[in-house]
Write a structure and sequence with these properties.
Layout: E1 2-9, H1 13-21, H2 23-29, E2 35-38, E3 45-50, E4 53-64, E5 70-77, E6 85-96, E7 101-111, H3 116-136, H4 140-164, H5 167-179, H6 218-237
Antiparallel strand pairs: 1-7, 2-3, 3-4, 4-5, 5-6, 6-7
Helix pairs in contact: 4-5
Length: about 240
């Protein structure tokens, strides 16, 4: 089974690269991973886990092309009986354009528990969650809460219609709740492409991304602070 997901993100290349390559930042926006732990004794190898289901991944290399395109490839797999993926491999590609960066992935895998459509949805929803983070500054935790609140509101509307109006009006309200697009600030898998041959439509940028700095993990912030303190101490001694 092979999946393809693509989205246009109006952000700087370095901000997008850091948010996707730093394990501490990656787990903040990607619904598929609860934890990613690099193995220091094995460069390029990492362990990942979600809801107690763990697996192992191996980075097979990064490539930076002359035109600014970047590619990051990896292999992954798990022997856990509840793992949705037995084994697979794929890549992330970052393609700079005048409108923004085409962030896309294509990966093949052997499905085990979850159907491919649900795997595609989880990946695409996470990509749009990442886009909102980089374009508007809304944290992944905040957009998750907004998505849950919106889903609860639509469910409540259907329940209220069923209670007060009966099954047929409730069915109409349910169809409307499914058909209506999510709010602009709510992550939505439908904003991603399923096929590489379909052009992304232009959409207005909620906020200029040129002035937004790359998100930083707690570990990188501590490292920067320690480096600054060390430099200041050295300057005083000199």
């Amino acid at each position: 089974m092979r999946l393809y997901i693509e989205i246009l993100i109006r952000a700087g290349m370095e901000a997008l690269w850091q948010a996707t390559q730093d394990p501490a930042l990656h787990t903040r926006w990607d619904l598929r991973f609860g934890r990613i732990h690099p193995l220091p004794e094995e460069p390029g190898v990492f362990r990942y886990a979600t809801l107690g289901v763990s697996g192992t991944g191996v980075s097979t290399g990064n490539r930076h092309a002359a035109d600014g395109t970047r590619t990051s490839a990896l292999r992954f797999g798990s022997t856990h009986p509840l793992s949705p993926i037995r084994a697979g491999s794929g890549y992330w590609r970052y393609v700079p354009t005048a409108a923004g960066i085409r962030f896309l992935t294509s990966y093949g895998y052997r499905p085990h528990v979850l159907p491919p459509r649900l795997m595609w949805w989880a990946t695409a929803w996470s990509f749009d969650r990442l886009r909102l983070w980089l374009e508007t500054g809304r944290s992944p935790a905040r957009t998750l809460l907004q998505a849950l609140a919106e889903a609860a509101g639509r469910t409540a509307a259907v329940a209220l219609a069923a209670w007060t109006l009966g099954p047929l009006p409730a069915a109409a309200v349910a169809a409307l709740a499914v058909a209506l697009p999510p709010l602009p600030g709510t992550p939505a898998a439908r904003r991603c492409l399923r096929h590489p041959d379909r052009a992304l439509k232009e959409r207005p940028c909620p906020r200029s991304s040129s002035a937004r700095s790359a998100p930083t993990s707690t570990a990188s912030t501590r490292s920067s602070s320690a480096a600054s303190a060390s430099g200041s101490t050295a300057a005083r001694r000199a």
